[in-house]
Design goal:
alpha+beta, Alpha-Beta Plaits, 2 domains, 4-stranded antiparallel beta sheet
Length: 188
């Protein structure tokens, strides 16, 4: 290795070693700085996770009181007539919300001249509509999604019967559903 450059100046090998040591120390300091920063962020996130978990546990441990209303209290909020178009639209919306892949059979029949499905005595103004439904689907697990989507509507539905027959291609479901309306006699 040469000791002098082309101008006759002495080349010092020590400066290069010092520069290499400084760069190495800066790299180590940067590495530990990044590690320290990441550990502090991880600690903050762990604290937030613990706080959120405590809040979730507190919400789960506090029981909300469930209040049930009587039929007499619900009568003013029930529809005054039965509109088959509205009910069939709600059934189709629930069917679409369940997002069945394939439906090979979908039959619905309505009967407005039925007695109460309940054993308890109900007000005379309360009228019942029996909805019989047969549906053949390829995904039986989504039938529960259909029921949940049906219950999400504002109308009251009572499922009296829910039979599912498993087949090689899916399932055949037979449902008997009741809905209600408040028959207000006209004063004519």
């Amino acid at each position: 290795m040469r000791k002098y450059d082309i101008f006759g100046k002495k080349i010092s090998q020590v400066k290069f070693i010092y520069l290499l040591i400084v760069i190495f120390l800066l790299a180590i300091a940067g590495y530990f700085g990044v590690i320290n920063l990441q550990e502090s962020r991880l600690y903050e996130l762990e604290q937030q996770e613990r706080l959120i978990q405590r809040q979730i546990n507190q919400l789960l441990s506090t029981e909300q009181p469930i209040t049930y209303q009587t039929i007499d209290e619900l009568l003013p909020y029930l529809p005054t007539t039965f509109d088959q178009y509205v009910v069939s639209t709600e059934l189709l919306e629930a069917r679409n919300a369940a997002s069945f892949q394939s439906i090979s059979n979908y039959a619905v029949s309505y009967n407005t001249q039925v007695a109460s499905p309940f054993t308890a005595t109900m007000p005379a103004q309360l009228k019942y509509v029996r909805i019989s439904m047969n549906i053949t689907v390829t995904e039986p697990a989504k039938l529960l999604d259909f029921i949940e989507a049906l219950y999400a509507h504002d109308r009251l539905y009572y499922i009296q019967q829910f039979n599912v027959t498993m087949t090689t291609d899916g399932a055949i479901a037979q449902l008997v559903i009741f809905t209600f309306y408040h028959d207000i006699p006209s004063n004519t």
